[in-house]
Specification:
The chain is α/β, with parallel strands linked by helices. The chain has one domain (about 40-180, about 220-314): Rossmann fold (3-Layer(aba) Sandwich), CATH 3.40.50. It is built from 13 helices and ten strands. The strands form three sheets. A six-stranded parallel β-sheet has the order 2-1-3-4-8-10, with helices on both faces. Strands 5-6 form a two-stranded antiparallel sheet. A two-stranded parallel sheet has the order 7-9. Strand 3, helix 8 (about 145-155) and strand 4 (about 165-170) form a beta-alpha-beta unit. Helix 8 packs across helix 11 (about 210-230). The chain is globular. The termini are far apart.
Length: about 325
């Protein structure tokens, strides 16, 4: 083992241990999602976010219209797909369902007490509701942690080829970029939580404080998905997938895309489509609320949105 790296890790552990005297975060209810005043908007009005709630009795035309279920990542909310929904509404004839992961978009305690299986439940609930109403052209778009959640559903056979056309994965996390995450199980109980460096806008839609329990859940999820990919499995018949992965990403290692490419095949055994994106942002498709967004970031976002909408129109 590299002595310098070992020393750095021990230094981090020591620092975290000294900081662990206060395991309860100081939450500003007025400015943070973590508090008990600001909830995700989909909780107040699900019909504005979920197609299954918005259209009680779909027509034949609506049943055949492409529906894309968008799913956000760990510690995020439906906000992560707002920009795509706005763009799709203007530029395409598609229906967009924005799913809020279980345990998310509520209080810090709600988040803390949730498991990754809880996070996954609303994904299946919306998919099943759309199927029950007769929709024939359903797709998924997931970002970050939504990707392993969807991959697990595929492996378990919960998502079938019954109307499922496409799956788009944005910056999937199977291997974390920060290798110190593996120490969460050791230092997490001492700390209680980890603090994110959000902007003021992001604090309204992303948890500022990440309970160590949820990070352990995340590690358990990606560990399971990694093992499944190493064994290998296939997409349902008639379902296609495309992976978009930032080359430089401080959250999800680029190796994540390689593992998916090697471990997951189309139903006929051919390889899935992977596109490496020249970006240093994690979930590069969400730009609102970030500092220092460049024209290149905007162009990349538009390129991928257009690519997704073109596939949905086929």
């Amino acid at each position: 083992m590299n002595t310098k790296n070992l020393y750095s890790k021990l230094l981090v552990i020591g620092t975290l241990f000294l900081a662990s005297c206060n395991s309860s975060p100081e939450i500003d209810n007025a400015t943070m999602l973590d508090g008990d005043l600001i909830f995700d908007a989909s909780i107040y009005n699900p019909a504005q976010y979920l197609v299954s709630e918005n259209i009680s009795n779909p027509s034949t035309i609506q049943k055949n219209t492409p529906v894309i279920i968008t799913v956000h990542g760990y510690s995020a909310s439906t906000f992560e797909w707002d920009e795509f929904r706005t763009y799709a509404t203007i530029n395409a004839n598609v229906l967009v369902s924005q799913v809020l992961l279980g345990g998310h978009g509520r209080t810090y305690e709600d988040f803390k007490n949730s498991t990754w299986k809880d996070w996954q439940d609303p994904i299946m609930a919306e998919y099943s509701a759309l199927q029950a109403k007769g929709y024939t052209n359903i797709s998924f778009a997931g970002s970050s942690t939504a990707c392993p959640l969807v991959l697990d559903l595929i492996k378990q056979g919960a998502i079938t080829n019954n109307g499922l056309k496409n799956i788009f994965l944005i910056d999937p996390i199977v291997i974390p970029a920060d290798k110190l995450m593996t120490l969460v199980g050791f230092v997490g109980p001492m700390l209680g939580y980890f603090e994110a460096t959000n902007t003021a806008t992001e604090d309204l839609h992303y948890y500022h404080f990440r309970p160590q329990e949820t990070l352990n859940e995340l590690l358990d999820l990606i560990d399971q998905v990694r093992k499944d990919l190493q064994k290998g499995y296939q997409l349902p018949v008639g379902t296609k997938m495309k992976v978009y992965k930032s080359i430089k990403d401080e959250t999800a290692d680029a190796v994540s895309a390689v593992l998916i490419y090697k471990g997951l095949k189309n139903s006929d055994g051919t390889t899935i489509n992977v596109e490496m994106i020249d970006s240093n942002l994690h979930v590069f498709t969400r730009l609102e609320g970030r500092d220092n967004v460049t024209q290149k970031d905007l162009d990349t976002q538009k390129q991928v949105f257009d690519d997704i909408l073109l596939v949905l129109a086929q």
